């Protein structure tokens, strides 16, 4: 078998990947879904917020008449843990172009009480039905070729080795935003990386929900250490991504009063701006 | 009476203004509020989305243990009309620093059916309890002095004279973003203005919810005409605004597939970035 064909069969495809397996929801009743949150998408012990968003997106894509997330706004209430969870959805409005839904993820705490982890409002549509017009003035981020960017496997771990999610991602960080890993943060609220799934599954609208919250926090480059929990995260998916690695650029302009915003944009291999997001996060000043 | 004192008594203050009167909600039951949506905040016949956000914010500020909106994410479902409406709130989670709530605004349609107009998730806190640290890299927008900016009263109406909201606002647009009013749109997705309430009421966190959605659409400067309905709008309030006029800067980078984002930032007279917002809107290409 030629090497190219061999490489093709070892790549995971959409529907048959770690990401698909770990976001799979089982419909228990109309609009109600069971899922086991995987320990494979944690940072230290916290389940990644982008992975959670993809889980909610998957449930809503099943519950609503439209399958593609256009805009998802999530408020993070309590920290999710690996293990069983239930997603309850509500269809708020169905329309010809867009449908709006709500989803909440619940888990049981140590005392057996059901606790809400995250609640989201979302509008879904059909990305393939959009017209082809593009009048964007946005430019792809200035990021070196992938071979010049650095991942966890490139020597002194720039991404904390204690994070299981590092094994699931193909994350190559722009050296210009890696000063923090060498104890020399740039002071600029910027983080840039090439992004993909480690098993080679291509990007789709659901994995974009993961991509916007998968890089190290910009706070690291601002010289802050410690946890930067998300309060609220909104993603706009603007285009179905082309196959190939994504480029993710995150910027923070306003760190004030113990909060900061993280603005992410995601570009595909065809130089299309495929997703934009903004989150409000709390910081502990170090 | 000295002229300055006379001017002071004719200025509306917070709690005693058109904006306060028209966002006032009456508690009918725990978490349920009645309001008459004022025709004074309409553009043509549509009730302004920022005014609606302020109404929801006012209800949530009463229902939740915290009074200041920190982040509000609203999905716009159907067009609101002037007249009676009810806001139903739910307390999702209460915490020491932040409380999260949900609010929906309903009206009756011509057939007597209750229709949901807008649904929002929001996290509220106490802006006065935030630490004073500011490490922002954001700069105030480049906008000429107010005397060089233009409002509806300055000759050929730059803002459509058919909009009642024009009488409620002190809106002075940067001439550099007014090409559309002269049939010469710049092609740049930018809109900048000095912003205040016409009766002189100072800004507060609630009026910031109005400020982020009160300028003409950036689509006008992109050469598009017609309606640009909001799908989703998220606001972060980052600081209690100082007295005096606000500067609002709105930018659009990505017009594609019939949708665009509008990013707004609001600066106060003390040069603090007091609010950031992003909305996803639909466009009709002209």
TrEMBL record, chains A, B:
Top-rank taxon: Bacteria
Stretches assigned to the Acyl-CoA thioesterase-like C-terminal domain: 161-283
Annotated InterPro entries: ACOT8-like_C (IPR049450), Acyl-CoA_hotdog (IPR042171), HotDog_dom_sf (IPR029069), Sec_Metab_Biosynth-Assoc (IPR052389), TesB_ACOT8-like_N (IPR049449)
Pfam families to which the protein is assigned, alphabetical: 4HBT_3, 4HBT_3C
Coiled coil: none
Sequence ranges assigned to domain Acyl-CoA thioesterase-like N-terminal HotDog in this UniProt record: 38-125
PANTHER family: CHROMOSOME 23, WHOLE GENOME SHOTGUN SEQUENCE (PTHR38110), THIOESTERASE DOMAIN-CONTAINING PROTEIN (PTHR38110:SF1)
Name of this chain's protein: TesB-like acyl-CoA thioesterase 3
Organism, scientific name: Streptomyces mutabilis
Lineage: Bacteria, Bacillati, Actinomycetota, Actinomycetes, Kitasatosporales
């Amino acid at each position: 078998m030629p090497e190219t064909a061999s490489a093709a069969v070892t790549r995971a495809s959409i529907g048959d990947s770690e990401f698909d397996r770990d976001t799979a929801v089982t419909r228990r009743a109309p609009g109600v879904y069971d899922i086991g949150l995987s320990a494979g998408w944690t940072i230290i012990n916290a389940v990644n917020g982008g992975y959670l968003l993809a889980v909610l997106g998957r449930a809503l894509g099943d519950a609503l008449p439209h399958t593609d997330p256009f805009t998802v706004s999530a408020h993070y209430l309590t920290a999710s843990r690996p293990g069983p969870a239930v997603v309850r959805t509500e269809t708020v409005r169905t329309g010809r172009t867009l449908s709006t839904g709500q989803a909440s993820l619940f888990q049981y705490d140590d005392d057996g009480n059901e606790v809400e982890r995250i609640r989201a409002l979302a509008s879904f549509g059909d990305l393939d039905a959009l017209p082809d017009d593009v009048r964007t003035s946005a430019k792809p981020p200035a990021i070196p070729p992938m071979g010049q960017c650095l991942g966890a496997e490139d020597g002194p771990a720039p991404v904390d080795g204690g994070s299981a999610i590092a094994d699931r991602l193909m994350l190559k960080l722009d050296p210009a935003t890696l000063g923090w890993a060498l104890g020399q943060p740039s002071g600029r609220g910027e983080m840039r990386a090439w992004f993909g799934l480690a098993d080679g599954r291509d990007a789709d609208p659901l994995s974009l929900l993961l991509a916007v919250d998968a890089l190290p926090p910009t706070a690291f480059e601002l010289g802050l250490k410690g946890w930067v929990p998300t309060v609220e995260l909104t993603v706009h998916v603007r285009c179905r991504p082309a196959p190939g690695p994504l480029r993710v650029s995150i910027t923070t302009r306003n760190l004030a009063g113990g909060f900061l915003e993280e603005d992410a944009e995601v570009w595909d291999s065809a130089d299309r701006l495929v997703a934009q997001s903004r989150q409000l996060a709390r910081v502990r000043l170090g």
